[in-house]
Design goal:
Elements (H helix, E strand, L loop, with lengths): L3 E4 L2 E4 L4 E7 L8 E7 L6 E6 L5 E3 L7 E6 L4 E6 L8 E8 L16 E2 L3 E6 L1
Parallel strand pairs: 2-11
Antiparallel strand pairs: 1-3, 3-8, 4-5, 4-9, 5-6, 7-8, 9-10, 9-11
């Protein structure tokens, strides 16, 4: 059972950048699909982007061109590089992992992911 730990959140001004990290506990972490989700106060959790075991990536329209996912397989870590941040990006960001057949795709629904981290808060001030 893989355990996930996020880090890198914080407070940043509009237009700034942050890099979030999602570290997996197992050496087989590279065989999982990993996605980032976010949840703002009073809103439902939404898909941000993800990467498959074969390094194919998929992003939500709201973050395309601003956010980039990088997978470092030797370090068992998936990064979410966030540039040109906006106040509407303020949320609790969580990473999630899916194994088996789901590792070949990037499901956009949270129900597809069996493993979740605790989340890291990102706040963008205007």
């Amino acid at each position: 059972q893989v355990q996930l730990a996020e880090s890198g959140g914080g407070l940043v001004q509009t237009g700034g950048s942050l890099r979030l990290s999602c570290a997996g506990s197992e050496r087989t972490f590279g065989s999982y699909a990993v996605a980032w989700f976010r949840q703002a106060p009073g809103k439902e959790r939404e898909f941000v982007g993800g990467v498959t075991a074969s390094l194919w990536k998929h992003y939500a329209d709201a973050v395309k061109g601003r956010f980039t996912i990088v997978r470092d397989i030797p370090k068992n870590t998936v990064y979410l590089q966030m540039n040109n941040l906006k106040p509407e990006d303020t949320a609790l960001y969580s990473c999630a992992a899916a194994g088996g057949q789901r590792a070949a795709t990037v499901p956009t629904t949270e129900q597809a992911y069996a493993y979740w981290g605790q989340g890291t808060q990102v706040t963008v001030s205007s």
